[in-house]
Amino acid sequence: MEQALLTRLESAVARLETLAASGSDPSVSSRDLPGAASLDPAISVFEDLVADSLGRVSASAGKIGGQVVDATKILEEAFAALRELLVKAKRFQKPDLAGLAEFLKPLNNVMVKANSLTEGKRSDYFNHLKTVADSLTALAWIGYSGKNCGMSMPIAHVEESWQMAEFYSNKILVEYRNKNPDHIEWVKSLKELYVPGLRDYVKRFYPTGLAWGSVNSASLSSTSITKAPTASIPASPPPPKAPLCSTESVPSRPKEGMSAVFEEISSGKSVTAGLRKVTNDMKTKNRADRSGAVAATEKRGHTSSFSNNSKASPKFELQMGRKWSVENQIGNKNLIIDDCDSKQSVYIFGCKDSVLQVKGKVNNITLDKCTKVGIVFMDVVAACEIVNCNGVEVQCQGSAPTVSIDNTSGCQLYLSNDSLGTSITTAKSSEINVLIPGAGPDSDWVEHSLPQQYLHTLKNGEFTTAPVSHSGA
User: What distance in Å separates the CA atoms of residue 158 and residue 200, rounded to the nearest whole number?
Assistant: First the structure.
């Protein structure tokens, strides 16, 4: 009898010592004790999830080694921090935003630690590190505090977070599909940890958010988390209660948006009281400066300013020893480039009524936005390009692998016997004629017009394209 009594006394003393060490109130029930956490079904199931699913992730990481092991250890730290938060939440009331941020700080520190692994120079296991870092976002479901908190519901948040991490996990599957099965097993076990593991756990115990303590539980604040109260320091007296009726009026927060508009309309005041009255001289039809007529002087001034801006100084020079620039030449028929080599290019821009001769072999020739310009050249290594031109004539006296004509209206292309194998490409162009030498030395040039209309027909499930031919009666 005495032995049983002593046993009961020892257990009671042990319980009181535990309460004193934790700084809790004696009125806290036994389910709030750290030793009783394992009796909570939510905690016990979470521990089983960690031991089973997370254990398989750790086993697979051990086979791979390297930074994968380091990332998996951080994963274990995150789930351990989540368990501590689940236990702690049952001993406190739901906090405000500042208290919630302090409450989630241990978990946030682990996430920051995981993200730091992905920074800097990319390693061979970057996809593994990124998968772990992005997947830890799923543990933030514990911070869900309501519809207006900016987060999805806990179940949806876990699924969305894993979808973000799955982008990098799929890269691991593709990279190691036929190389190392340990990486494949690590990815599969990690996915099972979150989906369906963590998702089903949240769906079973916390579908609408974290379960906080009852009203009689201790209040949670930033000071209560960082420093627990001790018995030797007396509690500060509560602040004096404010009177129910005060002579000083407390300004209320003004309404914004459409609420303020409807409040003003329903107040009975004149809604148009603050509007200015529009007099006759302010109306558009009575204002002289708003007439629909356009002054002639204004139009002439606009035209003259445009024509002056369109004139640019002519240019004919070799730039950096690589590029011949011929620009804004008007009415100049004696432009000659004779000192050139195969490494140089020729660029003709904005010229009109001019003729250019290139006496030598160059790498590339380009005509851009030229009108009624003629060019005669010997050999081209790459191509001769004609872009945005009107009524130009181009003569190749040597060889040119490619002639490209784009967005051009009117082009006469003369080819020599050495350039008959030239490839001619056209796009958005019209009036393109190609002239080649005749059969004899004294024969005239033979002119061929390139088609600009095409007929597209569907045959056997595929479209065939052919130029349109016109025959006269």
Answer: 10
